[in-house]
Amino acid sequence: MRQVLDRLLTAVDADPDAGPKLRAARVPHRFCFPDLDVVLNVTDARGEDHCLEWEFSDRIDWRPSMTLEMDSAVANRYLQGAENLAIALARRRISFQCSDTRAALAFFPSSAGLVDSYRSLVKSDYPHLALS
Fold it and tell me: Mind listing the domains of the chain with CATH numbers?
């Protein structure tokens, strides 16, 4: 999962549309995948060369404004656009914590590029993850 997410964020960071949108949202966020014991923290890049910075660790020098926690199977569906966030929250497949509601309102619209990039990555390099 780390490899797939790292490649996803590398692609989004380089994308001339998706990367700047996520950077402009300025929402440090955290993904937790407890079934794989993986955590991913993402924030807007401080330098000019990149849009995003990320760490697969909680040893970071920024504080996430929001956290999404889900099992890897739910994450795979969510990142392919097949898991509706509101329904997943209601059914407790995704846990959400947010210290600033405006952060969520800024993040979710800007995160559409994640889905497009993830679908493309899965289709080309990880077909076993593709949803039927």
Answer: 2-129 (3.30.1050.10)
DSSP string, 75-109: HHHHHTT-S-HHHHHHTTSEEEEES-HHHHHHHHH
User: DSSP code of 17?
Assistant: T
Looking up tokens 């509706």 gives 84
Contact 21, 110 (CB under 8 A): yes
Complete edge-to-edge strand list for the sheet that includes strand 38-44: 52-55, 38-44, 29-33, 66-70, 94-98
Q: 55-107 pLDDT, tens per residue?
A: 999 999 999 999 999 999 999 999 999 999 999 999 999 999 999 888 889 89
Q: Which amino acid is at 71?
A: D
- Helix, strand or coil, per DSSP, at residue 24: helix
pLDDT in tens, 104-124: 898 988 888 899 999 999 999
